[in-house]
Amino acid sequence: MTAFGFPLLSLLTFLPLVGVAIILSVRGDEKAVASNARWTALWTTIVVFALSLVLWAKFDRSNAGFQFTETVAWMPQVGLTYKMGVDGISVLFVLLSTALTPLCILASWESIQTRVRDYMIAFLVLETMMIGSFCALDFLVFYMFFEGVLIPMYLIIGIWGGPRRVYSAFKFFLYTLAGSLLMLLAILAMWNFAGTTDIATLMHTVFPKSMQMWLFLAFLASFAVKVPMFPVHTWLPDAHVEAPTAGSVILAGVLLKMGAYGFLRFSIPMLPLASADFAPVIFALSVVAVIYTSLVALAQTDMKKLIAYSSVAHMGVVTIGIFTFNAQGMGGAIFQMLSHGVVSAALFLCVGVVYDRIHTREIARYGGLANRMPGYALAFMLFTMASVGLPGTAGFAGEILVLIGSFKVSIWLAIFGGMGMILGACYMLYLYRRVMFGKLTRADLMSILDLSPREIMTFAPLVVLTIWMGVYPSSFTSFFDATVNSLVEHHQAALAATTKLAGVAH
Amino acid sequence: MLFAIAVLAPLFGSTVALLLGRQIGDRASQAITILCMLLASACGVTSFIDLIYQGGHAGVVSLGSWVSVGSFHVDWALRYDALSVSMVAMVTCVATLIHIYSVGYMSHDNTIWRFFSYLSLFTFAMLMLVTADNLLQLFFGWEGVGLASYLLIGYWYEKPSACAAAMKAFIVNRIGDLGFAAGIALVFWQFGSIEFADIFGAVGTYQDATYHLLGADYRSYEVIGVLLFIGAMGKSAQLGLHVWLPDAMEGPTPVSALIHAATMVTAGVFLMARMSPLMDYAPHALQFVTIIGGSTALFAATIGCAQTDIKRVIAYSTCSQLGYMFIAAGVGAYQASIFHLLTHAFFKAMLFMGAGSVIHAMSDEQDMRKMGGIWKLIPVTYVIMWIGNLALAGVPPFAGYFSKDAILEAAWASDTAIGHYGFWCGLLAAFLTAFYSWRLLILTFHGKPRADHHTMEHVHESPWVMLAPLCLLAVGAIFAGYAFHEQLLGADWKDYWGAAIQIAPSNHVLANMEEVPGWVSMAPTVLGALGIALAYVCYMFIPGIPAAFTGMFGGLYRFVLNKWYFDELYDAIFVRPCMALARQLWVVDAKVVDGMPNGVASLATSGSGRMVKLQTGSIANYAFTMLIGLVVLVGVYLLFR
């Protein structure tokens, strides 16, 4: 069934559902059920994480192709198979998902008090969907997981969110769904053309140029919303503001990466000509995203909104990197996605810490916290600096690699895309200054407590990861280096083939 | 090995103090950071002696891989050569003295562990910068000092002005850093590597490579040179990006000493020297360096003449002295620029800590107009400040004389119009330097006491823990110039520098320096003496002159006093428009960008609302509708049959 002996990826994907079954089977009074649900969810996610470490250990880093593959014929009459596997691009996102979910459970330990059982179930289902979409090697299977993510996330925002949760949840759902439907059409068109939805086959299928253009646009509709790219980013701040802390963490940490992952997995290898043609459009939108949303972030008065807008800017850097089509830019983009997954998740947790205590996200309500909360100040400073892209923290390697990669395309792309370096420093330091520095004046802040042991446990892995990714990023880049190189070669070969054809035609 | 300890010991001290500071207490934090610094300076000096005097071999200490993507490989590695080892020895020694001084200066502070941890972090970042073996690691140190300076300038975070100054320092530096990062990118695409060994080895190969920019082709080296220099301008506070430096005074005084003397601001000068093999093939970029350097030297000196805050005067003098160093780098005399960097480190650290001692004595007063008449009360500090100013003004035989003279001779000897521009700027600045230095001395120590008697009663000499480091620095400020000038700049400079500084075969500046006309060597000293004399006349003998002057040239005086209105200008053209734009864009985002999908949504809701009304439930209505539909269908069918 699989080279590894047992279907590891399927196990990872569906193990959370076992947790769901256990939680569902528990009966008793509400308190017992809640506590049981918490512990079950925590243990399930920890087991999944531990299991996913096998990927870390056994993944062959020199192999550019898919590994741990497993295939089950599903609907052979229409050429549909259930196929799972990971390559250098996806393997780390599986790990990111499995690593962040237990932290989310921990972060929700006390802040979620209503319908705890349902909440934990939603999170476990969400984990299944996330892992599944990064492992799927069949386009239709991918699509099901990709869309499946919407349901638990919709519920998490809509039920456990803030005052405008229903509006935000609807917006999130409809926005993403509208884009995805076009992608479904595109998938059907591809199936019609190639007779299969197998990703590996599609990667080597040469679609006619005009068809590539339409397919690219359809994919773009779906992925651009998910990334999110300017100007379809406005669902994000609303969703973040209303979502509970853990919802924001997973949204920023993993869900946003799915759009960029889609570009890397589908648009670029399957539609090389269209990707090359549309690259300038993507660059323009990304540069606008970097500068525009950074400025909007500067004007925010709500902590979560500020970080949400900063996410859009950071993802703009990612899309620039992906469409540079060179190893530095693409590798940088993947690294930036990973580091943003860790750092923005951590920043949302930071907001959650003070929100749990004071119950407001209004920046002006805070000030001078550094005095009472030195541990928190230290962690927050580290993540702020990582978000700014300080060397030695996670944010740096991705940013500089994308800058180098984009320089190859044009110095102006590098400079304008790099404006995020300056503007990022402006809005993050401004945020930090208003929240942490200054005099402690408000009465309710005078007695605010520093991080609790549970919070320290939540932050510790993220602190370690942030520094590790900054000091020794090679241990992460080595996973995707081979795959990225082969992707670059694949892309160049595809472009060269067309120019040759064009030459023959003339 | 020793070399690696010199670099990493401060990191260890910093980490321990930061993480355990609250548990182990202030004393232990101080002890551990200072011990680490002592260890670092011992190792640093040993490595220095090893390489320079014992015939040790330059090399690279590898610490492991860092980033590796595609063909882009970068390692953590320490470069061990004359340039890095000189810097390491200087940085560790001066930083150690500053640590010791801080024990006295910061003794009343609440979070001493935090301060010492930041100080050591700062030192570590600077050491990483100077020992970097590739541009990316240099950038690591570069940003690291940015972070540490941000933390230290904003150390008293309850003061809004300190927070603002800290942010300003970080952000202004970031602007330069973007240029630096772009420079690194171009180096990578040109040379296929950003390791120094690879770059310098291939300098000859790509000499004629061009880079297309704004519709014209430029030589790649020129573009790289300018981009890297933009980074240097940010860090070394050159004209245009200098605005953060004077505000950095908001930090505690030992921090100012560290920023201005041993670390941070000298990074840009160091970068120019480190990249000398490449810069020397980029003559136009070098001309740009000289122009900016010369202009900064003069510009900052004029401002220094009008400031009343004792630390600000010294801050602007740093800015001006950095300008000198860039003049030298720009005319190809990298050795002279590093020489001035080293001597400057001693006397500037001394001046700042001396000023700190004065401020300490005056109960935290920094305004020179409220000082005066205290020289008998704090004699040691007084002597220290004299020595520092003698060195700064370039009076022979103090350290500054040798290095400043060398720079001006080099500028003259370059024999180009731009080089001469640098020379004249530097010469005028030398006059102004001497003037404001003695203005500072006289206003601070002489004349009638202008402080209230309450303050005057408390005037006291600083404790020995503060004075001892000052005295040690004084030794450097007196002898460093005389001791090293022959070695660093003489005919046998290659014996000292080895391969650390490489110049193009056409670069004969150092040799030509020996042959400049006599008046060129004399002029700085003479003008310096005149500046001192003028200060005595204006502030001691005929004290009415300054007031009369400000009365006569009020506009000019205000222009200089307000620092040429740079802050106001930037505020008006960058900061406020940027914030206003940000607020506008937020409205746009909420109303327009978000309005469209929301508009579509409400259109759909109202549309479906109308559709609902069609469902009346009356059979007659439905039948009628069906009939119409049938007629239309049949009609269409018949028409298009």
Per-chain topology:
The complex is a heterodimer of chains A (506) and B (641).
Chain A: H1 8-25, H2 30-58, E1 67-75, E2 80-86, H3 88-107, H4 116-135, H5 139-148, H6 150-160, H7 165-194, H8 199-203, H9 209-226, H10 235-242, H11 245-270, H12 272-298, H13 303-322, H14 327-358, H15 369-372, H16 374-388, H17 394-409, H18 411-436, H19 443-446, H20 453-471, H21 474-505
Antiparallel strand pairs in A: 1-2
Helix pairs in contact in A: 1-2, 1-4, 2-3, 2-4, 3-4, 3-11, 3-14, 3-20, 3-21, 4-5, 4-6, 5-7, 6-7, 7-9, 7-10, 9-11, 9-12, 10-13, 11-12, 11-13, 11-14, 12-13, 12-18, 13-14, 13-17, 13-18, 14-16, 14-17, 14-20, 14-21, 16-18, 17-18, 17-20
Chain B: H1 2-52, E1 59-69, E2 72-80, H2 82-105, H3 112-131, H4 135-153, H5 160-191, H6 196-201, E3 210-213, E4 216-219, H7 220-235, H8 244-247, H9 253-262, H10 266-274, H11 276-279, H12 283-304, H13 310-330, H14 334-361, H15 379-393, H16 399-413, H17 417-445, H18 453-458, H19 464-489, H20 493-497, H21 509-513, H22 518-541, H23 544-552, H24 554-561, H25 566-593, H26 595-614, H27 619-639
Antiparallel strand pairs in B: 1-2, 3-4
Helix pairs in contact in B: 1-2, 1-3, 2-3, 2-9, 2-14, 2-19, 3-4, 4-5, 5-7, 7-10, 7-12, 9-14, 10-13, 10-14, 12-13, 12-17, 13-14, 13-16, 13-17, 14-15, 14-16, 14-19, 15-17, 15-19, 16-17, 16-19, 16-22, 17-22, 23-24
